[in-house]
């Protein structure tokens, strides 16, 4: 049987150019998140509404740990080869009070010992790392640390009152990697003081550090934050949806080219958070719109490298659902590349290939 599922087959060709359309992060198959909103944070950042974003109210950590202990005890231990990850998200894990951090790591120890958990990660700020804490995390089996870098631009970091500069952000990434952890970098396109140009430079800097994964969180304005006040005072203007899709599409294409997984393209849907968003690029299919833009840009670059009009494009089947954007809005731009629908073929291969 042909590896092409539709009846049509690609035409004979004499040359081709391959390009990446996203890689999967090698991580546990199932992830059990433990949200610790604002825990350990030195202040509430101007744009942050972690409690609403994670759908978790501010909870005493011992009670939260107990709740997760019960939920995880109900799961079967992982069979050989099976993986499950515990992820501490939503606060500044490395700055938790000692007792609270030890309770979290104690839970991780128990779950690892009973094979209910095989991997673990936590998220933190770049200015909350110390050699002693990193040793502790390693001893308890944390594999990956995600840093809420937000930007590598000192002016944007200052405008957003992050409390560290570009040099400290880069150094924190290196510290995590040199200590032997996988590194995740979280960026905040559209944050105060940033611009599309600054964000693209942020992505280039992040990719140069060869992280295990990236997350992009387009900046939104939740009610009750300093950013909401700045919006009202006219001191802050969020990026439009169109600009966000265009710029994050470029950024995602760069990450695909570098082979670095981008594991988030927008804040996860959460009813309480969505109800609190006053402004900013929110769309239920934002991730798909960004992927569609990135795919089109990547195909355009491949066409330039090909140097001849393309005869056909082979795409991984996963692209089929999003490639034309919302209500087919990108069809014309695809046609402009010489790639009308009849020239596009879906395959089981992980890479795209342009033929001429
Ligand atoms: S952005 Fe990060 S450091 Fe700032 S308040 Fe939110 S969770 Fe804490």
CATH class of the largest domain: Alpha Beta
Strand order of the largest sheet: 2-3-4-5-6-7-9
Spatial shape: globular
- How would a crystallographer describe the biggest sheet? 7 strands, parallel
**Overall residue-averaged pLDDT value:** 93
Continuous helix count: 12
CATH superfamily of the largest domain: Aldolase class I
Parts with pLDDT < 50 across at least 5 consecutive residues: 1-6
The radius of gyration is 22 Å
Assess the beta-strand content as a share of residues.
15-25%
Stated plainly, the CATH topology of the largest domain is called: TIM Barrel
- How helix-rich are the residues, as a percent range? 25-40%
Structure description:
The protein has 356 residues and is an alpha/beta fold. The protein contains twelve helices and 13 strands. It has two domains: 16-21 and 298-355, no CATH class; 30-294, Alpha-Beta Barrel (TIM Barrel), CATH 3.20.20. Strand 11 (312-316), helix 12 (331-336) and strand 12 form a beta-alpha-beta unit. The protein has helices at residues 50-54, 61-73, 98-113, 131-139, 154-159, 166-178, 196-208, 226-232, 241-258, 271-276, 286-306, 331-336, and strands spanning 16-19, 30-35, 84-89, 119-124, 144-150, 182-187, 213-216, 221-222, 262-264, 277-279, 312-316, 344-347, 352-355. The strands form three sheets. A seven-stranded parallel beta sheet has the order 2-3-4-5-6-7-9. It starts with 15 loop residues before the first strand and ends with a strand. Residues 1-6 have low confidence and may be disordered. Helix 2 runs parallel beside helix 3, helix 7 runs parallel beside helix 9 and helix 9 (241-258) packs across helix 11 (286-306). The longest helix has 21 residues, at 286-306. The chain binds iron/sulfur cluster.
């Amino acid at each position: 049987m042909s590896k092409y599922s539709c009846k049509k087959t690609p035409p004979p060709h004499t040359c081709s150019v391959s390009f990446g359309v996203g890689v999967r992060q090698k991580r546990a198959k199932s992830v059990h998140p433990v949200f610790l909103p604002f825990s350990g944070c030195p202040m509430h950042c101007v744009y942050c509404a972690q409690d609403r974003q994670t759908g978790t109210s501010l909870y005493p950590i011992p009670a939260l740990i107990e709740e997760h202990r019960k939920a995880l005890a109900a799961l079967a231990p992982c069979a050989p080869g099976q993986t499950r990850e515990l992820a501490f998200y939503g606060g500044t894990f490395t700055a938790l009070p000692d007792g609270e951090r030890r309770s979290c790591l104690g839970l991780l120890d128990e779950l690892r010992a009973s094979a209910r958990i095989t991997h673990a990660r936590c998220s933190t700020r770049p200015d909350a790392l110390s050699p002693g804490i990193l040793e502790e995390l390693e001893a308890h089996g944390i594999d990956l640390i995600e840093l809420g870098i937000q930007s590598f631009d000192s002016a944007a970091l200052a405008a957003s009152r992050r409390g560290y500069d570009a040099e400290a952000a880069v150094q924190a990434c290196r510290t995590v990697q040199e200590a032997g952890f996988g590194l995740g970098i979280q960026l905040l396109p559209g944050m105060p003081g940033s611009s599309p140009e600054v964000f693209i430079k942020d992505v280039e800097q992040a990719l140069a550090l060869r992280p295990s994964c990236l997350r992009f969180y387009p900046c939104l304005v939740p009610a009750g934050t300093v950013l909401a006040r700045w919006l009202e005072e006219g001191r802050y203007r969020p990026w439009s949806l169109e600009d966000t899709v265009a710029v994050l599409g470029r950024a995602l294409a760069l990450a695909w080219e570098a082979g670095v997984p981008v594991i988030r393209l927008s804040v996860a849907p959460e009813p309480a958070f969505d109800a609190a968003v006053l402004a900013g690029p929110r769309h239920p299919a934002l991730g798909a719109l960004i992927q569609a833009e990135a795919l089109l840009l990547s195909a355009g670059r491949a066409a330039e490298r090909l140097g001849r009009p393309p005869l056909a494009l082979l795409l991984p089947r996963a692209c089929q659902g999003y490639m034309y954007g919302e209500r087919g809005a990108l069809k014309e731009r695809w046609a402009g590349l010489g790639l009308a629908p009849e020239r596009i073929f879906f395959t089981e291969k992980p890479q795209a290939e342009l033929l001429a």
